[in-house]
């Protein structure tokens, strides 16, 4: 719905001009009240299926792209596994040993620095993450 409203404002010349000038949006504007089924619209526009998502998941897992994302998350969050696991696509708690191993190999090879938050993570914190 939010994307739909953004699209409606940006695609309507009058609404866009008002937004560009004032930085605000007229919530009562006709362009925002069209009753369009935005979910259906975006699905039609992008034509993404469940199979597409499953295929992406299979291709992403254990890929160079995933490794790069894990390394970036490790650096961004300074080794905080809670935040790493929340930010890397297509992972859940069952993937943690695999993700942890990827990071450990990169630390051992010198590609990544060793952060205390990762190396000294308590078992209590790890178990809390798994319960969540």
TrEMBL record:
InterPro entries, per the entry: HTH_DNAJC9, J_domain-containing_protein
One Gene Ontology term, aspect cellular component: nucleus
GO MF, one example: heat shock protein binding
Domain DNAJC9 HTH: from-to ranges: 60-126
Stored Pfam families: HTH_DNAJC9
UniProt xrefs under PANTHER family: DNAJ HOMOLOG SUBFAMILY C MEMBER 9 (PTHR44144)
Name of protein: DNJC9 protein
Source organism per UniProt: Mystacornis crossleyi
């Amino acid at each position: 719905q939010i994307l739909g409203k953004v699209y409606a404002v940006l695609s309507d010349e009058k609404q866009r001009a008002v937004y560009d000038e004032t930085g605000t949006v007229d919530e009562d504007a006709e362009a925002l009240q069209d009753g369009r089924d935005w979910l259906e619209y975006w699905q039609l526009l992008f034509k993404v299926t469940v199979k597409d998502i499953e295929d992406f998941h299979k291709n992403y897992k254990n890929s160079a792209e995933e490794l790069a994302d894990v390394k970036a998350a490790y650096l961004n969050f300074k080794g905080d596994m809670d935040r790493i696991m929340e930010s890397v696509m297509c992972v859940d708690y069952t993937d943690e040993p695999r993700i942890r191993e990827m990071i450990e190999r990169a630390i051992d090879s010198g590609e990544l620095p060793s952060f205390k938050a990762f190396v000294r993570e308590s078992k209590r914190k790890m178990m809390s993450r798994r319960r969540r």
